[in-house]
Amino acid sequence: MSKLKLNRRTLLRGMGVGSAVAVGLPLLDIMLNSNGTALADGDPLPMQFMTWFFGNGVRLDQFEPAVVGDAWELSSELAPLLNVKKHLNVCTGLQNRCGQQITHHEGMTAFNGYTFTDWDGGLFSKAGGPTIDQVIADVIGAKSPVKSVQLGVSKRTSVMDSGTTMFALSHRATEQPLFPEFNPQMVWQTLFGEFQPKPDDRALRKSVLDAVSADIKKLKPKLGTLDNQRLDAHLSSINELEGKIATLPPACMLPGKPTEDNSDLNDPKDQSGTEPITSVNKAMTELMIYAFKCDITRVASCLWIGGAAETNFAEIGLYSGHHDNTHNDQAQDKVHAGVVYIMQELAYWLEQMQATVDPLGKSLLDTGCVYISSDCSEGLTHSIARQPVIVAGNARGKLKSPGTHYQATPGAPNAAAGNISDVLLTVLQAYDPTATSVGGDVAKSTTPLEAIRGLG
Fold it and tell me: Residue 344 is part of which domain span?
């Protein structure tokens, strides 16, 4: 008798509170071909991609590793990433070749390879073209129910800038910004379709597991012992995640408007209102890990803290805005502390991705990658020279692993310095080997960065 095969996109289905419910499944042995190199239907194994942005740059003297090459060591600002170091390719000394400069806006070229457009001579602009996540979504996004998802953590976006460049990390095109969602409850709704952001409506908190119980009973007898164990663990994680999202205090997500049950707002040192950055970061991470694991989506972006944003880090005792600190030469110690905190929160994302392993022993950092950068190298100067990029993950061997520290010639003229768009092209080719360029105008790249290319 031939071995039973299960389609990778199989969903457990049922009805819950008057609406259809569908629950994705993790990758199981039953979904693979006989040697585990592809899905049972011959499609390539799934890959994931994510962009992750933090505004206002770094302290270059504290961020750039001292050693170039494979023997590199973590710098003080990169130290929180110790547990995922083997998955990191750190690229420094690069030149962002945006053709215009405002402040901060030009830094976003690192995510699309285009000079911004529609500049009014002030602080208004629009993205010059599609961002890398959307280019990759056109390649792999159609294979999942949700083509891509856009997340945000800090709601304190810039009050000075206008247009769309600074407010949407993801763009389908110049006139098609994809704005981030800052509420984990709404992200849950987008990804899973069952949860409604009405925390006082007990009926809507009924477990989706109850709704799909009939499908679960039909599926389990068809699975082997290991797949049944994986399914049980997966269903338990859904139940746990439901509880965490459903109990997240809704007032925590209101921008700067305190409520009586938000304990974070009781700190008299924080006049602008404390954001629950750490807990929201954790909730967003868990949502995306689940969505990637179950192939609900393969592409995401996270505007963790916006460019030129007035976010403060009250949770670690930094009550002055991070943007103001980066522009104050007397507050660079606070900038350093802020960047270390940002890297700690990034580490949580990457460590959870590393811990999520499929039946082939591959983690989400093996099967995908995260592209991480900012809107400048250092906020104090607004410089886009030496703008750093971290690429975490090897995208099924397409990117170098263990990773390296690549450094272009720091401070060199454009002709000699590395083009930051070269990193974009290298990443794009990991998902679309036929791609020959990325971006446009003076920021375009046709030369991938070979130093971070893998052997796969």
Answer: 47-186+274-452
CATH number at residue 403: 3.40.720
Helix, strand, coil share (%) of the chain residues, nearest 5: 35, 20, 45
Widest CA span in the chain: 74
Q: Which residue(s) pair with 313 in the sheet? A: 318
Question: For position 272, what pLDDT does the model report?
Answer: 64
pLDDT digits (tens, 9 = 90+) for 10-47: 555 555 544 555 556 666 655 665 555 555 556 778 99
Backbone angles phi, psi at 367, to 5 degrees: -95, -10
Would residue 212 count as lying in a domain? Answer: no
Flag whether 230 is in a domain: no
Q: Give the number of domains in the chain.
A: 1
**pLDDT of 83 strictly over 90:** yes
Once rounded to an integer, what is the mean pLDDT over residues 201-208? 45
User: Which span out of 37-46, 228-237, 368-377 was modeled with the highest average pLDDT?
Assistant: 368-377
Residue pair 419/56 in contact by the 8 Å Cβ criterion: no
| Better-predicted residue by pLDDT, 320 or 117 | 117
Separation CA 108–CA 77 (nearest Å): 22
Q: Are 374 and 55 in contact (CB under 8 A)?
A: yes
62, 136, 182: which is closest to 370 by C-alpha?
A: 136
Q: Per residue, what are the HEC states of 211-245? A: HCHHHHHHHHHHCCHHHHHHHHHHHHHHHHHHHHH
Q: How far is CA 218 from CA 12, 212, 224, 350, 442, in A?
A: 10, 10, 13, 35, 57
Report CA dihedral (407, 426, 375, 279) to the nearest 10 degrees. -110
Pairwise CA distance, residues 221 & 125, whole Å: 57
At 75, list the tokens. Answer: 């710098």
What totals of helices (H) and strands (E) does the chain contain, helices first? Answer: 11, 13
> DSSP characters for 381-427?
TTB-BT--EEEES-TTTTB-SS--EEE--TT--TTTSPBTHHHHHHH
Task: Examine residue 348 and state whether it is found in any structural domain, yes or no.
Answer: yes
SS3 of 343, please? helix
Residue 139: how many other CB atoms lie within 10 Å: 18
Secondary structure E strands in 256-404: 299-305, 368-373, 389-392
Rounded Cα–Cα distance for residues 353 and 291 (Å): 11
Task: Note the pLDDT tens digit of each residue in 89-143.
Answer: 999 999 999 999 999 999 999 999 999 999 999 999 999 999 999 999 999 998 8
| 245 in any annotated domain | no
Strand partners, 370: 50, 392
**Residue ranges with strand state E in 85-219:** 88-92, 124-125, 149-152, 162-163, 170-173, 176-178
